[in-house]
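Q: Structure tokens for this one, please.
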Amino acid sequence: MPQTQLHTAQIVGEVPAWVSELYSRMDSLNSEAVLVHFSDDCRIRFGNGEPMVGHEAFLAGTGAFQQAVRGMRHRFRQVWQCGDSAVLVADVDYVRHDDRTVTLPAITVLHRRPDGLIDDMQVVIDLTPVFGD
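A: Here is the predicted structure, written as tokens:
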């Protein structure tokens, strides 16, 4: 029977540089710049939406969302790393076009390949309040 290698998850004291760089690009609402962190065959899913597979699907999906908000900012409360995966716990501030800011909790699970590119991203969030009145 093959042995399974177990990794111990740990909360890191500071947000790792690769996470800071990724989310700096996300917060700039520049989807093209974000994609340098993702593999060509990446799978990205937000909430209960359908997974977006590949760069073209990500650009199409985020293009519509970016028209709905004027800005956003991620504030990390915890970052857990375990092997090639990371779990990010954050509060996300979304600035709507009416200048109202909506803050939502989010949990993101990322998996990176050995070359450092992200091939899987799952964001657990309910975006409904961003679009509500």
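A few notes: The helical segments are 17-27, 31-34, 55-68, 128-131. The chain has a mean pLDDT of 90.
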